[in-house]
């Protein structure tokens, strides 16, 4: 599984980086994104879902969140 660390990236840069990361994997691949609390954890999952990707989980870690996404059809 690919893990992309987006901690420290501001909106909308973190969404753009997430989208670019998903372009490098095949449909159906699972990618983990590490997100900061606040706007990133609210906006990135919503935006990725709006792009047609499947949200598999969002869990809190030590001071950040881990978002697990399955790449949808392009």
From TrEMBL:
CDD domains: SirA_YedF_YeeD. One of its GO terms (biological process) is methylation. Residues 3-71 form the UPF0033 domain. The keyword Methyltransferase applies. Keywords: Methyltransferase, Transferase. It comes from the Bacteria. One of its GO terms (molecular function) is methyltransferase activity. Belongs to the sulfur carrier protein TusA family. This is tRNA methyltransferase. The lineage of its organism: Bacteria, Pseudomonadati, Thermodesulfobacteriota, Desulfuromonadia, Geobacterales.
């Amino acid at each position: 599984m690919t893990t992309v660390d987006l901690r420290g990236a501001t909106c909308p840069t973190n969404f753009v980086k997430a989208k670019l990361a998903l372009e490098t994997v095949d449909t159906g691949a699972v990618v983990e994104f590490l997100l900061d609390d606040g706007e990133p954890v609210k906006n990135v999952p919503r935006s990725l879902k709006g792009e047609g990707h499947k949200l598999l989980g969002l869990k809190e870690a030590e001071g950040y969140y881990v978002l697990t996404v399955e790449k949808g059809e392009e």
